[in-house]
């Protein structure tokens, strides 16, 4: 049975149906989780089946932003106390959520057995969703790198602030070194104007190309918007609280770009080796 299970995982890696998107950032406070929640909602409104996986496993935030009353979380699943079917929560906004837990330091660095159980989870969910979105923790922790490694699309969130841009560069450098990820996407959040965001992208793109030979693509610029704070306070997606806001208009452009992309499925040698170890 173990061998059959691992063969199914290898087949999933090669022929998986869902598109896996990792939402990451070099530092906290740049609006990463808010973006993950709202892009999930936007894609669902576009008719896509979306699962938002709170991959900041020890510091849950997705359920808070959506005001979800969760009774189980990823910790319960990893400890064998809940099935995959009972782990998924309806967000109430057209997409599903896998909630994380809060205050458990042992989940900030998964062992091989726990990581393998997560792979089992993705094998089961793969046929049910168009997009599986990981809202990872901030920074370059081991869990963040692993979720990035199994994703088809790595989206890095930054903002017009020197430390945020520097940390975005450092994050991209690490995932490139660890898993040879050479085609990340950038979202410049909280930008004063579109032009400011594009300038930040162009500068970061040139540095990455010059020193690391990495091709950075711009997924979008999201302008600073006071209505975002209202949606956070009300614990609802911004499309529900401020549907005509600048943030929402910019986010729709990002959603359309994702839907219209021909995203190449990522199946790297490291992922293959993870699954073949126990064959």
Automatic annotation (TrEMBL):
Entries under CDD domains matching the protein: FlhG-like
Entry-linked Gene3D superfamilies: P-loop containing nucleotide triphosphate hydrolases
GO cellular component terms, semicolon-separated: cytoplasmic side of plasma membrane; cytosol
InterPro entries named in the record: AAA_dom, FlhG, MinD_FleN, P-loop_NTPase, ParA/MinD_ATPase
Alphabetically ordered keywords of this record: ATP-binding, Nucleotide-binding
Protein name as catalogued: Cobyrinic acid ac-diamide synthase
Domain of life: Bacteria
PANTHER family xref list: CELLULOSE BIOSYNTHESIS PROTEIN BCSQ-RELATED, SEPTUM SITE-DETERMINING PROTEIN MIND HOMOLOG, CHLOROPLASTIC-RELATED
Domain AAA: 20-180
GO BP annotation list: negative regulation of cell division
GO function term, MF aspect, one: ATP hydrolysis activity
Origin species: Calditerrivibrio nitroreducens (strain DSM 19672 / NBRC 101217 / Yu37-1)
